[in-house]
């Protein structure tokens, strides 16, 4: 079991960024592996954080991950194969059936109905 912890910082411009905590204070670089479709992700950047035992990780999303459906990345402590975390991309056709997409459509329709109702109220006064 790994003592390392992973906290998401942000995801923007095709790079997922996070902070790895509880690393040994000796300054030894943690051995992190990121897997996508059972293949390791290349060009993962690991740099020292501001506090002892903290490391910053930047994971570039490969172009082949930008496709229809659900794409999952899993982040491991390679020293003992412990899963530290994951992140998921959802795009294309899978989004149409996603409950979140349905909620967004309902919100948009509700906003449209509110505007129409307010306009009707103003016109009938």
The helix/strand order is EEEEEEEEHH
Main sheet overview = 4 strands, antiparallel
Please tell me the CATH architecture of the largest domain by its name: Sandwich
Major β-sheet strand ordering: 1-2-6-5
Radius of gyration: 21 Å
- The residue ranges in which pLDDT falls below 50 over 5 or more consecutive positions are none
CATH superfamily of the largest domain: Rab geranylgeranyltransferase alpha-subunit, insert domain
Number of domains: 2
Total number of strands: 8
CA-based shape? elongated
Helix share bin: 10-25%
CATH topology of the largest domain: Immunoglobulin-like
Under the CATH scheme, which class of the largest domain? Mainly Beta
Walk me through the structure.
A hairpin with a 4-residue loop joins strand 7 and strand 8 (82-91). It is built from two helices and eight strands. The protein is an alpha+beta fold. It has helices at residues 93-96, 99-123; strands at residues 5-12, 15-21, 32-36, 39-40, 45-48, 55-60, 69-77, 82-91. A four-stranded antiparallel sheet has the order 1-2-6-5, with no helix packed on it. A four-stranded antiparallel sheet has the order 4-3-7-8. The radius of gyration is 21 Å and the shape is elongated. The protein starts with a strand and ends with a helix.
Quick recap of the structure?
By secondary structure, this protein is α+β, with helices and mostly antiparallel strands.
């Amino acid at each position: 079991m790994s003592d390392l912890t992973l906290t998401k910082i942000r995801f923007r411009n095709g790079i997922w960024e996070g902070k790895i905590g509880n690393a040994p204070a000796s300054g030894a670089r943690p051995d992190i592996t990121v897997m996508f479709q059972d293949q390791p992700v290349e060009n993962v950047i690991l740099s020292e954080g501001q506090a002892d035992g903290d490391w910053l990780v930047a994971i570039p999303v490969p172009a082949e991950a930008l496709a229809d459906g659900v794409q999952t990345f899993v982040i491991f402590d390679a020293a003992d194969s412990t899963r530290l975390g994951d992140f998921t991309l959802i795009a294309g056709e899978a989004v149409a059936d996603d409950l979140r997409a349905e909620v967004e459509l309902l919100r948009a329709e509700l906003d449209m109905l509110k505007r129409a109702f307010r306009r009707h109220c103003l016109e009938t006064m």
